[in-house]
Design goal:
Keywords: ATP-binding, DNA synthesis, Kinase, Metal-binding, Nucleotide-binding, Transferase, Zinc. This is Thymidine kinase. GO terms for molecular function: ATP binding; identical protein binding; metal ion binding; thymidine kinase activity. It comes from Macleaya cordata. By secondary structure, the protein is α/β, with parallel strands linked by helices. The chain folds into two domains: about 140 residues, Rossmann fold, CATH 3.40.50.300; about 60 residues, 2-Layer Sandwich (Wheat Germ Agglutinin (Isolectin 2), domain 1). Helix content is about 30%, strand content about 20%. The protein has five helices and twelve strands. The strands form four sheets. The chain has a six-stranded parallel sheet with strand order 5-2-6-7-1-8, with helices on both faces. The protein has a two-stranded antiparallel ribbon with strand order 3-4. Strand 9 and strand 10 form a beta hairpin. It starts with 9 loop residues before the first strand and ends in a 12-residue tail after the last helix.
């Protein structure tokens, strides 16, 4: 006799720029699910060590115990098959760092009957797709796009502006490096940052006594 298939699960996605409250929304949902008697577990990337590896922590200091993992595919083995089978809800924070997000969500929701709640950035500081978060939107039962408050004018902020010169996509940091901004101040901010970089490059070239020949820079 064929084994009865588990009831299908759900996938809910929470998106937004930095400081939009994505982790807070995830934490609130997980606490609510736990309060309703459901078994829950939270996973975050072990790349994010800002507040330690044993908790997800919001910017205002609220926290919830979690599993810090290098990938999602090894979560079942790490937790143990029996414990995994008893789980009802799986929360995933900073989901943009997991390359196997799509496959994990398919397996957990479609085949294992889990409710999966995903929180992550949809875009990087250049407003380009970040990781595979956008790939799971076609799988989702619901998608929530959160906004922050523009640090410069107070309007709704949809974007994350990087204030430093680093250019790598993955740069884990807080308000010392990033700020949430509206569309106008994102565009204006990029212009200001680029102008500042040109000025700094000029000063660096002009003050370096060992520079014999350099590419002209418009100063």
């Amino acid at each position: 006799m064929e084994t009865a298939r588990l009831s299908s699960g759900e996938i809910h996605v929470i998106l937004g720029p930095m400081f939009a409250g994505k982790t807070t929304a995830l934490l609130r949902r997980m606490i609510s699910e736990s309060g309703n008697g459901r078994s829950v577990a939270v996973i975050k990337s072990d790349k994010d060590t800002r507040y330690g590896l044993d908790s997800i922590v919001t910017h205002d200091g609220k926290k919830l115990p979690c599993w810090a993992m290098p990938d999602l595919s090894s979560f079942r083995m790490k937790l143990g098959t029996d414990a995994y089978d008893k789980l009802d809800v799986i929360g995933i924070d900073e989901a943009q760092f997991f390359e196997d997000l799509y496959d994990f969500c398919c397996e957990a929701a479609d085949h294992d009957g889990k409710t999966v709640i995903v929180a992550g950035l949809d875009g990087d500081y250049l407003r380009r797709r970040f990781g595979t978060v956008l790939d799971i939107l076609p799988l989702a039962d619901s998608v929530t796009k959160l906004t922050a408050r523009c640090e410069l004018c107070g309007k709704r902020a949809f974007f994350t502006l990087r204030k430093t010169e680093e250019t790598q996509t993955e740069l884990i940091a807080g308000s010392d490096v990033y700020m949430p901004v509206c569309r106008q101040h994102y565009v204006d901010g990029q212009v200001v940052i680029e102008a500042a970089r040109v000025i700094l490059d000029c000063k660096k070239v002009q003050s370096d006594p060992y520079v014999v020949e350099a590419t002209p820079v418009a100063c």
